[in-house]
Amino acid sequence: METLQSKHLLGIKDLTREELELIFNTADNFKEVINRPIKKVPSLRDITIANVFFENSTRTRLSFELAEKRLSADVVNFSSSGSSVKKGETLLDTVNNILSMKVDMVVMRHASPGAPHFLSRHIQANVINAGDGTHEHPTQALLDSFSIRQKLGEVAGKKVAIIGDILHSRVALSNIFALTKLGAQVMVCGPATLLPKYIKSLGVKVTLNLREALEWCDVANVLRIQLERQQVRYFPSLREYSLYYGINKKLLDSLQKPITIMHPGPINRGVELNSDVADSDHSIILEQVENGVAIRMAVLYLLASNTA
Amino acid sequence: MEQKKQIINSELLDVMLSRLCHQLIEIHDQFEHTVLLGLQPRGIFLAKRIQQRLESILNKEIKLGYLDTTFHRDDFRRRTTPLKASSTHVPFLIEDQKVILIDDVLYTGRTIRAAMDAMITFGRPRTVELLVLINRKYTRHLPIEPDYTGRAVNTIDTQRVLVAWKEQGLEDSVWLTTKDS
Question: Which end of chain A has the least Cβ crowding within 10 Å, N or C?
């Protein structure tokens, strides 16, 4: 296999295992590129990419922008604050206006699940989903699996626990798709109010007990408590959440084996992860960020080469 | 139907490799500031052979790197079949070094152009030379010519030159294939 089936990357759900492997193998090459003295290749020099962010983001947007620039693409950035979206322009109108300026690819983050799918049906450009509401965040899941593959050699057969706010997490859903497709076992762990009702139908184990999840897993992917999505009281207080689901060094030291700690960022230090864990040797959080650029370069490159 | 004709057998290939190595030594003497760069995916077998032979003649270590040109090609998005990237492994700086690029077959010259582009991301070389096993004459799209040639052959567009190596589980040999139109 040398190319992706689709001209868009909307979610992990649509990808096959072979496509995931292709993205990883291509990312290996780009990882070598970004460690060269000159970190830039000219592959996408005739391509213009619009980063359209209707929701806040630091890491993802920076990572996409760096990946685009390392591939020599021209980049325009758009964020909804301070734009005509506030004046009531529709999503399709906004994007069509941007596309009239001859843009070849659109990287979009939006608060509504399915927004990139809607867009991909109406425009010619390649669409990359950089997070749509509580639905999917495909490049994050790709870089998470890529980081596991780099740390442990392969993903197949590994046990991965996803811990925290599963209900609101697009990272969790995309990760579950990616990990199960690659042959890993997945367990989700969190307070009952933050676990979706039908999560078991995705073929994952479920537990409410943090210690049980940590004792079972090789890798713990700890999610952020999404403070901006807690309008309903899903748990009594952050302090209580931290007591039951926060991971600290004492807890990790009491386990039988060393486990790898991942976090998609931004970390709420002292809530889901203590600093003595986040900054320890167990954590590969900063490797995840580095791999993010390589993975996004691979995705952009592969989609751009798919001219069919 | 495809016709396949052997143009170089393993004995002759061995003689050619020896000659190329001695030509290199004539110019580069002890290889003090000279490095070899084999081009992925097919030039690396030739580059490895040259390195081994130079090392046994000179009795010293010769630096060899592998360079992939995929991301630097100018026909990206213009091809019907996508390109697959190979790994790049250049474990040394080429700043102020004499670089010898090594590939099996020189055809349009576009790979070599891309290779020079890829190469300068590792530094500014003092000089760059090109060694190829087979030089296909009259097929160039760019003003690029080899400095060291195993054999120059006359070919037409419907023909292909294939170099086979023991490392690929085949017999060392060079083949000319012709597609019937």
Answer: C
Give the CATH number of the domain where residue A65 resides: 3.40.50.1370
Mutation test of the interface with chain A: which of B66, B71, B87, B122, choosing the one with the most A Cβ atoms within 10 A? Answer: B71
Give me the domain span that covers residue A85.
12-136+289-305
Query: What is the tens place of the pLDDT at every residue in B100-127?
Result: 999 999 999 999 999 999 998 888 999 9
Tens-digit pLDDT profile for residues B147-165: 999 999 998 888 899 999 9
- List, in order, residues 6 or more apart from A52 with CB less than 8 Å away: A78, A94, A95, A98, A106, A107, A108, A109
Q: Helix, strand, or coil here: B2?
A: strand
Residues of chain B with pLDDT under 50: none
Do residues A70 and A34 lie in contact, with contact meaning Cβ atoms separated by under 8 Å?
yes
Which residues from A are below 8 Å from B123, CB to CB?
Answer: 37
Residue B136 lies in a domain: yes
- Residue contact A33–B85, C-beta within 8 A: no
> Cβ–Cβ of A301/B122 closer than 8 Å?
no
Contact: B77, A40; criterion CB under 8 Å? no
Alpha-carbon Rg for chain B, nearest whole angstrom, is: 16
**Tell me, what's the ipTM?**
0.77
